[in-house]
Amino acid sequence: MSRKNKIVLAIMIAIGCCIFGYSLRDVPLHSVLMNLKDLKWWWLLVAFGLMLLSLACEALIVRLLLKKHYPDMRWRDIMRIPMVEQLFNGITPFSSGGQPAQILALAQTGVEAGQATSILLMKFIVYQAMIVVNFVICMIFGFHLIAAKMHVMSILIVFGFLIHFSVIAGLLMVMYWNRFTRKLINLCLTPLKWFKNKDLYPKWKAKLDEKIDTFYQESLRLKRDKKAIFKIAVITLGQLILYYIIPYFIILALGVHHVNIIEVTTLHVLIVMVISLFPVPGGAGGAEFSFDVIFSLYIHSGTKLVLAMILWRIVTYYFGMFLGMVALVQKPKRVQQVDLTEE
Q1: Which of 262, 34, 276, 84 has its CA nearest to residue 163?
Q2: In this structure, what are the phi and psi dihedrals at residue 278, rounded to the nearest 5 degrees?
Q3: For every one of its 343 residues, what pLDDT tens digit does the chain have, with 9 covering 90 and above?
């Protein structure tokens, strides 16, 4: 990890501590201690276990994509990939550092950089598609829970959906309407010609053309291997469900009963969609605010609501970053690619 990344990590932890401290400002200390004493630790362990299983599902996807060319790669080294991703997603705006970090982690195990990029691109396409599928289902069954009471949150949720939908729509356009997409992007780049720097337009055009070509070539592979894509889609769906149901068990750990697991899971999906709108690493501030607003529908005790938010952030955000820090210092075993040309 670079010095800059270490500084950002320290800043994010400090921001998190400040947010937690601010959230606890009106909560009596004796009330916090009493609720912690009565905490159902078993349910909290289940929440941590679900987070680990979610990461294991992502590692399984990487394994499926690599096993043909790298059958000797150890499971511990594969599990390291999503953990490193968690760390760099957590310290970069819009989780933009996760993909490059995974490529580097795969390169450390001996996977060629171009092949690593191709694999992660395939994973990203399926992941985005499953996010949209999950969200559409939750919009149908859960949007009414907050639409009437929280108009501002409703707008943010719809806006978040439109962004994710635009991403998957753009990916599909490259896959199926490559020439049209290329012309459309070139048209969008036209304003760059108006700048005094004449190299700006050709530089960006060449860069985007290269990205489109890489993605298009990978999309051809996607279309050919429908069986593998179906497997990855199912595992990704399972990964997301495991992650989305975590708040339910945190609520149970705090002794709040009579909550519907489907409704809680649906609301968590909507929260994650809102978090994606905030450019701050980890959606700091926006994540906590969204959780407080939405889950106040279920948790009427101010102390328990704040503790639920803190525990949720620890399990879904800081725990992943801690695992990423541990994974980052582990030295993976390098493996050789199997030559399949003789088969």
Answers
A1: 276
A2: -85, 125
A3: 667 777 777 887 888 888 788 777 777 888 888 888 889 999 999 999 999 999 999 999 999 988 888 888 899 999 999 999 999 888 887 677 788 889 889 989 988 877 787 788 778 888 888 888 888 887 777 666 666 555 566 677 777 777 777 877 777 777 777 777 777 777 777 777 777 677 777 787 777 777 777 777 766 766 677 788 889 999 999 999 999 999 999 999 998 888 888 888 888 887 787 777 666 666 677 777 778 877 877 788 888 888 999 999 999 999 999 999 999 888 888 888 776 554 4
Closest residue by Cα to residue 135 from 272, 280, 331: 272
d(Cα 299, Cα 196) in Å, to the nearest integer? 57
Tell me the residue length of the chain. 343
Q: Which range of residues forms the domain containing residue 312?
A: 3-15+30-328
Q: Please give the full DSSP string across 254-288, using - where no structure is assigned.
A: TT--S--HHHHHHHHHHHHHHHTT--SGGGTTHHH
> Would you state the structure tokens that stand for residue 316, as one six-digit string?
């879904």
In a domain, 276, yes or no: yes
Tokens of 225: 């291997």
**How many domains does the chain fold into?**
1
Among 309, 312, 317, CA closest to 283: 317
Instruction: List, in sequence order, the alpha helices (H) in the chain.
Output: 3-23, 29-37, 41-66, 75-90, 98-108, 113-142, 144-147, 151-176, 178-188, 200-224, 226-244, 246-253, 261-275, 286-295, 302-313, 319-328
Residue 24 falls within a domain, yes or no?
A: no
In a domain, 340, yes or no: no
* Nearest residue to 49 via CA among 225, 249, 287, 301: 249
In a domain, 185, yes or no: yes
Unique residue bearing structure tokens 């490059």: 100
Is residue 63 within 8 Å of 334, Cβ to Cβ?
no
Residue position matching structure tokens 């947010």? 19
Of 315, 248, 284, the closest CA to residue 22 belongs to: 284
**CA nearest to 270, candidates 236, 293, 253, 301:** 293
